[in-house]
Predict the structure.
Amino acid sequence: MVTNQNILMQNRRCVFEMIIKLTDKKREELGAKMMDFRVTAEEGNRNTFERMTKCERFKVGKQWDKDVLEKNKYRRKHSLVINKVLPVVLQIVGTEVQNPRNIKVHNVKAGTQTVANILTGLARHVMDSEDNNGQYKKTQMFDDGITTARGWLGLDIDYKHDPVKGNLIVKDYDPFMVLVDPACTKYDLNSEEGGAKYLITDEWVDKEKLETQYPQHKSRLMGADYSSRRESSGPFSRLVNYLFNNPVSSVTDDYRDQSQLDNPVNSKSDYNYRESITWWKEWKKGLYLQRQDDPLNFLAITGDKEMSEAKQLAEENPDRVRIVSKDRRGKPLVVPVLNKTVMVGDFILEHDVDPFNGLTNFPLVRFSPYFSHGYEFGIVENLIDPQQQVNWSWSMELNLTKLLANTGWIVGSAIGKALNFLKVHGGEDGIILSEKDYGGKIEKMKLNEFPAGFDVMTEKGSRHIAQISNVRMEEPQFDDKNMSGKAIALKQQSSMTGSAKPFANYDYTMRLFGNLTIDMIRHTDVYSEDEIKAIIDEEDLIDARLLDEARQIITSMLGQVGYEIPTPPDMTVPEMVDAAEVEAYQKLTSQLESEASRIAQELIFAEIQNIGKGRYGTTVDQMAMGPTMRIQQSIETFELNKALIESNQPGVARRLLIEATDVPNKEEIIAEVPQMAGVA
C-alpha cells in the first residue's frame, strides 16, 4: 500500500509487490511461460555450449576426440597432448590478477562528490567482504570468459545472517548453468533495444534443504518434470511423458555437450534438486512517482490499485511528490518490471514481482572477450586447430620413431610358434634368434630415414598459437642483460597489447557490475545507517576537500566570536624563535585539526541521508597498490634516480627509494642511519 511514510522516508524505494501467492491456474500459466523461455534458450544456446565445451576441454588438456583416442589406443599408437593453450590462458589471467580493477563512483547529475565517495566505499566493501570474496570471484569470471567465451558475475540478497534486511552477496556462476535470451544482440543485457528479455540460472540445492523449506510442496518436488520438451501439458503430462518414453527426471548436471565428455553421468540429482531462477522483464502500463526535491528520482508504479493510491498521495502532498503518467509526446507511459520466478523442474516454488524495490536491471553481468552482435567467442576457440596440429605432429613423430626403430624382419620361412615368437619379441633388445627356425635366413630390415617435415610442422603449430592469441610467452633468460628496468617493463607491456580488446570488454563488464552494485545499495535497505558509518570509518573516506571545508567552518565560527587564528611563528632566524610560542601554536594547531576531523566526519555522515538522490555512475581503473602498478612505479623511481646521478644532479632521496620497493621491514631500514664510507 502506498503511504506517506514508505514514499517519503529517507528517499528509499518502497516495495509495492512482494512474493505472489499463485492460484493453481496462474501457476500453470506462469509455469508454461517459464518452460517456453527455457525451450527457446536451450535451442538458441546449444551451438554456443558445444563450442564452449570444446574450449574448456582444450584448456584442461582433454584435446583428443574420444573415438580417435580409442582407435589409437587399440592400435598401440601414442596420442600426445603438448598443451600450448593452457600457458596462454594462464598468461592472460595472470595479467588480470596482477592488475586488479578498482571501482570508483562519480557524480553524473544532481549528486555530490561526498555521496560518490560513500558509494565507492560501500561498493568496495561489497567486493572485499570476507563472506563475498569478490576479488576471487571476478577472477574466476575472467578465467571462464577467456576460456569459454562466457563468464558471469552477479549480486543477490542473502538472508542467512540477517533475516530482516539481508546482506548483498557476490555470486559467480558456472557458465554452463546460465541460459541467456538468444535474441540478445547487445553486450549490455539491459539495453532497451537488443537487450535480453530473460536470464535463467540453475543451481543444485540439497533435497533436504528444499523439502524442509517448502514442506507443503514435497510431493511436487519429488515428481518435478525437468524435461523442457512440452509434448504434453496439463494434469496428465507426466503419464503421457512416461508412455512416450519422455523421462520425468530428464536432467543433466549442466549444459556441457555430453557427447564430448569422457564419462557423461548425472551425478548430482541423487541428493539434489536443480533449482532454476528465471529473471525476466515485462512492460506494464504505469506511471512514475517523482520527488519534488530530487527530480532524477523516479519510482515506477504499476497496477490499478497502486496507481490510484499514488495519485491520491500526490494530491495530498503536491509540494513533495508529483505524478508523471505521460511522456514528452503525450503518450501513456509503459514501465519495465523485473520478475523473479523460482522453479524446480516444471513446478514453481516462488514468484516475486519487483524483487529489488524498483531496480529493473538483471542482477547478473557477463564477460565475453570478443562479442560481435550477439556472437561470443573467447581466446581458446581460435587456438584449437593449431593445438591439434601440434598434438598430431608430435604424436606422429613419436609413433614413426617407434616404427623406424623396429622396422621388422626378413626370414626364409616361419610358421607356428617361431612366427608368433618373432611377432611378440622381435622388437626387444638383445634378442637371440636361430636361423634354422626361420628357413635358414633372418635379418633386420634396413632402417628408413626420418622425414624432416615433422619438426617443421610442430614448430609452425606453436608459432600459429602465439600469432593467433597475440600473446608472447616471454623468457627472461633471453633478455639483453643491459636492458633497463623501464625497457623490460615496456617489453612486458607490449607483449600483452594483443589482449587489449578482451581487457576493454572486461573493464566494461566491471563498470556494469559497479553500476549494478550502487543501484542495489540505493534501491534496497541492506545497509543500515550505522553500518554505513562504520564503513566510512573503516575506509577512511574523509578526504582533503572535506577537511578544507571543515577548517573553513571552524574559521568562520571563530570569526563570529571575534577570534582570529594566529599566524605561524617566524622560524627564519632560529635564535629569535620563542620556544613557548612555538609549542603553544603547535598545540592549537593540533586541537584545530582534531576538531576539523570531527566536523568533517559529521559532514560525511549528514550526506548519508542523500544517498538515494542524484544520479551516479562508475569508472574502472587499475588498483594503485596492485603488484604490476607497484613494480612499474618502483622501476620508474630507480630509473629517475639513475638519470639524475648520471646528469650530475642529486639523486632521489634514500627514504623515497626504499619506500618505492616491496622489501620487508622498510620502516626499520629507513630509520637506520647509514654510515658514511671511511667512518668507523
Observations:
- The longest helix spans residues 24-60.
- The mean pLDDT is 81.
- The chain has 21 helices and 16 strands.
- The first strand starts at residue 101 and ends at 109.
